[in-house]
């Protein structure tokens, strides 16, 4: 059986090198067919490194630019990367880069690019108040109904129930279960089976850890295939994320 992973970073794991070749080896060992890949932070140098190193592997990696909206040329750089360098989505981290997840004047120029090119946006969304709650993300997603949004970590430890409610009432929001508790994943899949995506947050975690969590969360084989493969496959097709 093959799997897809909606949350992977190109970054070494402590003292262990996890470059593209090593990442592909881990993916092959764990039957991971394809991943959403992004740098570990929004430094332009890390984005450039990723774009350079993954050349020739479009069949395995769908690329997300990790963008800091404070950077003065971020919109122009992002659109150029979409048009000419294979980027198919946007990663935002309101906690790491210190801005509210619903700050319209900062985020809307980037999301306008996502809207124009039919892209997918991943937003870090944990219990890290005041910048990154599910309700803040919902306000942003409601402004851009034709953009799909992925709630990375779906509210973390304390706000998973809020995340589930937000997903239920917004058809353009997907839940990403990386680093989330088993009980929260079970609740999310029961409530939103069509918009739950398996994610590991590699290299901070391991593919096999998340696969085990999913096996513990889902006993029905049809539903298991859906949340570990089918939903992401369908999202890729609907958004046209394949090059």
From TrEMBL:
Quote the SUPFAM superfamilies the UniProt record gives: Metallo-dependent hydrolases
GO molecular function ontology, one term from the record: carboxy-lyase activity
- Where are the annotated coiled coils located? none
The UniProt entry, under InterPro entries, shows: ACMSD, Amidohydro-rel, Metal_Hydrolase
Any single GO BP term: secondary metabolic process
Q: Which GO terms describe its cellular component?
A: cytoplasm
Keyword DNA repair in the entry? The reply is no
Query: Amidohydrolase-related domain: which residues?
Result: 14-231
Membrane spanning stretches: none
Output this protein's name: Amidohydrolase family protein
Species source reads Holdemania filiformis DSM 12042
